[in-house]
């Protein structure tokens, strides 16, 4: 027996209310954390490098990213913070536009503060192979708790 058109329409509306599609990602209704495919996650391959014109000189490069954001993997709420990168280049330096595009990819990634800071360090290290690197993630307070993560090599 065919469903009444009114009942069929209500079922379609209920189904669309349970799943919200945004640019290929399906969001869960409770937390709204998008399920991202692996190709959209940031990787060291997103960081482009250029030759360091002064490889014999030890000098440092300081980069501040004051508008970093990612998503809390538990609540799905946005996390905001500042990422500071200080490194001593070896043969390569990181091209800043590629760094910006790499950082923007975290905007929809559910990831803990400690993990994201260490992942940025690992990716930066793998792409540019600096002599030394320090990364500091200073995240805005959430529930009265401020988190700062420091990692270096």
What is the H/E order? Answer: HEEEEEEHHEE
Low confidence ranges = 14-23, 26-32
> What share of residues are in beta strands?
25-35%
- Name the quaternary structure: single chain
Structural class: alpha+beta
- How many β-strands, per DSSP? 8
Number of helices: 3
Helix content: 25-40%
Largest sheet: 4 strands, antiparallel
Features:
single chain, 153 residues, alpha+beta, four-stranded antiparallel beta sheet, two-stranded antiparallel ribbon, 8 strands, 25% helix, globular
What does this entry look like structurally?
The chain is of the alpha+beta class and 153 residues long. The chain contains three helices and eight strands; from the N terminus they run H-E-E-E-E-E-E-H-H-E-E. Residues 14-23 and 26-32 have low confidence and may be disordered. The termini are far apart. Strands 4-5-7-8 form a four-stranded antiparallel β-sheet, with helices on one face. A hairpin with a 6-residue loop joins strand 4 (61-71) and strand 5.
Question: What's this model, at a glance?
Answer:
This protein has 153 residues and is of the alpha+beta class.
């Amino acid at each position: 027996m065919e469903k009444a058109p009114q009942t069929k329409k209500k079922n379609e509306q209920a189904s669309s209310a349970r799943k919200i599609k945004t640019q290929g990602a399906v969001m869960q209704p409770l937390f709204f954390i998008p399920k991202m495919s692996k190709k959209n996650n940031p990787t060291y391959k997103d960081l482009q490098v250029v030759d360091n014109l002064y490889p014999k000189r030890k000098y440092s490069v300081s980069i501040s990213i004051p508008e970093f954001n990612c998503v809390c993997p538990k609540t799905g709420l946005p996390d905001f913070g500042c990422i500071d990168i200080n490194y001593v280049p070896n043969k390569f330096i990181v091209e800043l536009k590629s760094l910006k595009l790499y950082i923007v990819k975290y905007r929809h990634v559910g990831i803990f503060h400690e993990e994201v800071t260490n992942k940025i360090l690992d990716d930066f290290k793998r792409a540019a192979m600096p002599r030394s690197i320090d990364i500091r993630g200073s995240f805005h307070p959430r529930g009265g708790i401020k988190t700062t993560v420091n990692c270096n090599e």
